[in-house]
Amino acid sequence: MIKGNFIDNLPKVYGIYTGGFIGFIVLMAIGESMGMTAKAIGICFVGFTIFIYALIGWLSRTAQASNYYVAGRTVPTVFNGMATAADWMSGASFVAMAGGIYFKGYGYMALLVGWTGGYVLVATLLAPYLRKFGCYTVPDFVGTRYGGNTARLMAVIVLTVASFTYVTAQINATGTIAAVALDIPFQYAVYVGLVSILLCSMLGGMRGVTWTQVAQYIVLIIAYLLPVFWISNNIGAGFFPHFMLADEVARIGELEQQFGFVKNSAADLATVPKGLAGITKAHSEVNATPWAFISLALAMMMGTASLPHVMMRFFTTPSVKAARKSVGWSVFFIFLLYSSAPMLATLSKLALIDPNLPTGIIGKSIAEVQAIDWYQNWNQANLMFVSDFNGNGTVELNEFFMGGKAVVLATPEIAGLPYVISGLVAAGGLAAAMSTADGLILAIANAISHDVYYKMVDPKAETAKRLVVARVFLVIIGFAGATIAAMEIQGILGSVIWAFDFAMSGLFWPLVLGVWWKRANKEGAIAGMVLGLVSGFVYLVWVRSGGSGFLGITQLTFGIFGSTVSLVAMVVVSLMTSEPSAATQKMVDDSRIPAGTQVISQK
Amino acid sequence: MAKNAQHWEKTRGLLFVTLAIWAVFSMGIFLFGAEMNEVTGPFGYPLTYWFTCQGSLAIFVILIFWFAGRQEKIDEEFGFSEKGDD
To answer: How many CB atoms neighbour CB A590 within 10 A?
Structure first.
């Protein structure tokens, strides 16, 4: 199946796969109507999809370095777009994003703008040039462009700090979903998740990850869009929600006016279970200052352009031209999900708070709400809570609390969709978390095996030995991530945003100036990476420990500070030291012209 | 070398145009978020809300494809485009 003209057959192969997956959903729906239990359906969805990914991983096994590191540079633009979208959209995008919009409204939606706008920077400033360079990893570019092991090692360190912050959140999400679907304790579920992740990447490296990510994208996008459309139709909001929810958005505004945002006392809030929140912000009003919005969007955009696991996806295209186009496809596939998240948040909120809808709970009596089946289920799962603070016996807007994940996980059930949809959503969340974790673990392990081991420790190593080392590191990094994930330190989204800030603090300017400023030299790049990362980290610690910060830069946007320090340090130090050698300058010139052979020749 | 310099000048020009459009729709318009939200946008959504849900995102998709097409033209003009595959 994955031999010979596999690339030419891609549309057919994935067409059959998509059809098969839809068939499987139908089969599960039939099973449900014939009395299959919710638990059995959940296990089937999770088990079946993991089996398919593992099968693709096995079929993609390889013994060639170029296949292992850059999928043989044969991935067509559209498919690379899908793989990038899966690589990009994490468990947080899938499970937590709609919830963030539901609770925080406009201020949170800076993330939607930031996490798509960043790709304009990727397409224009970096991807085509790094592709022409012909590097295997991002530190490979830094090491070759600036020369010397110190620069290369610093890039590996920044990459590891940023990606590792990110990957623990993904393994955590994989574990959470596996724990629920398979009904096993979280501490074990994390390792089940890890083994599934390694099955995709270990044998085939980037090649295996590419083809599983395409498969995972198909699962996650079906799992996200199907419920949104179905819910919209079920509550009579319109058959194409994206174009038809204006009345619903306006209606939420009316209801907010009518109910008012009553502030709860601290004593009342103390009785609400940890992690749950009430609706305290207007749905569609501008509730953040321009700078708060713009600084968060900017930090996410520059972070996007600095995250190595995204950048390395564009090393797998056949040409420079294809690298540019596939960035466009990536954002298109991301757009499909991101533009649906606000619609889901709208539908979910309206279904819950509108007294005119049968599902609305505001204004109903507390006892009545507590007797609803789905309320009991999600209350038990610690994702929903009502309490009669004012003692009037009915649920008010300020007396209803929900967990962020509930928007994606519980809305299908609230809107009366069959359980098969909940199983599908679990499979989608798992696909999103697994595909991102795969990309991240591979990015770290490849940087260590290619840049540290092969380029610094043992440049004469045989291909076979290099690939063994690469796989050993893959397993070590995976287990380290899972072990930390099992400790549950940060919430899913907090650590994801930090990863962007770390990456932009250390890598944004060394990468961009490496292409666009010939005068940038080794000393400057090292100063930029070291001072950027350190200053960003110090700022984060300062703000976290009660520091006031300045210019409105928060713990979510500390990368703006770090990257500014990095830029200044890099320019000043570069100008104070001698200009790069003629050979390096020629390398930069070559990277600016798409035609011809790539700058680095790889073995 | 003159040819390379000209090619790079045009490439840089395209970069500035693309980044200017990007800056407007990722940051510029949100300076006036509160004012803009009073206006009704496409499909009847409040305008700022629509930009954060769909507008800016869709513009980025179109912008990148447009940029890729323009850059290909520039490369072709100077004979720097790659042969074959896509």
So the answer is: 16
